[in-house]
Amino acid sequence: MRKLLSHPHVIHKQIAGVSELGTALEEFASEAVDVVAINGGDGTISATLTTMFESSIFRRPPALAVLPGGMTNMIAGDVGIARTIGRAATRLANLAGENTCNIPCTARAVIRVENGAPDKPVYGMFFGTAAIVRAIDLCRRAFEEKGMRSSPAVALTLAYVLGRRFFRGRGDDDVFHGDEMEIQFDGQDRDDGAQLVALVTTLDRLVLGSRPFWGLENGSLRFTRIGYPPHRLIWFARRVLFGGPLRDLPERHYRSRNTDSLTLNMVCPFTLDGEIFQPGEGKPVVISTAGTVRFVK
């Protein structure tokens, strides 16, 4: 960050944890900043969005410049200003002296999840449940705790899970088993049953550049689910992750659609940008859009 320190008009605040995030943002708001840079991972970005939307600190929401400074940087990979922390810092330093009206930005909707915390909603960019949560736990235990960065750790986890599925067949294991869910879209259409995977995102690309969504409806939220037991998952895996808009997948087993809100009745834990939450007993998980945020590109 030495490049940024050479710009005296750049306000810099180093925090010890998310508990200090509100104070830092209040300081930025008092200075009427136009761009807030975040040097952290997905969890830090989610905490920033939650603070911004729940507290209304800023009279006019600033643009966010995301630097890939965390262990998991899926959000930075989609809306960040560069893929490496060095290049991101250089890019940010170059932008620091420019008129903010000339800084290129892209807009993304933000996910609002109710029932994710004991007393308030949480906000982020990626929601996942069922095997996604179990795979995250496996990834952290097997690879990230040993210091491996997110993308190679995810690639190895995916290869391990699919490879084990291929060689062990259809039997349940600690990742591959179904979770019963009742899913309702926009208060109307339903999609119930056992699911291996269910995800909701407003990002355009996820880990490894994947795009596991192909819905054609209007709606800010991209939803995809894989039913359990999965039908020919090894055969369809590449098409699910990297296929185009017309993927020719059996909808009974693989469904993707766009929506503006959905409600899930389930008992399994879920993740929002890497943080794990347990639904309140007997309470639905309600997912909607909170508005849009501008991200510096």
Textual characterization of the structure:
The chain has eight helices and 13 strands. The model has no long low-confidence stretch (mean pLDDT 86). With 297 residues, it is α+β, with helices and mostly antiparallel strands. Helices cover 29% and strands 29% of the residues. The strands form two sheets. Strands 3, 4, 5, 6, 7, 8, 9, 10, 11, 12 and 13 form an eleven-stranded antiparallel sheet that branches. Strand 1, helix 3 and strand 2 (63-68) form a beta-alpha-beta unit. The longest helix is centred in the middle third of the chain and has 19 residues, at 150-168.
Topology:
Blueprint: H1 2-5, H2 21-30, E1 35-40, H3 42-55, E2 63-68, H4 74-79, H5 85-96, E3 105-114, E4 122-124, E5 126-130, H6 131-142, H7 150-168, E6 179-185, E7 190-201, E8 221-227, H8 233-242, E9 254-259, E10 261-265, E11 270-272, E12 275-277, E13 285-296
Parallel strand pairs: 1-2
Antiparallel strand pairs: 3-4, 3-13, 5-7, 5-11, 6-7, 6-10, 7-8, 8-9, 10-13, 11-12
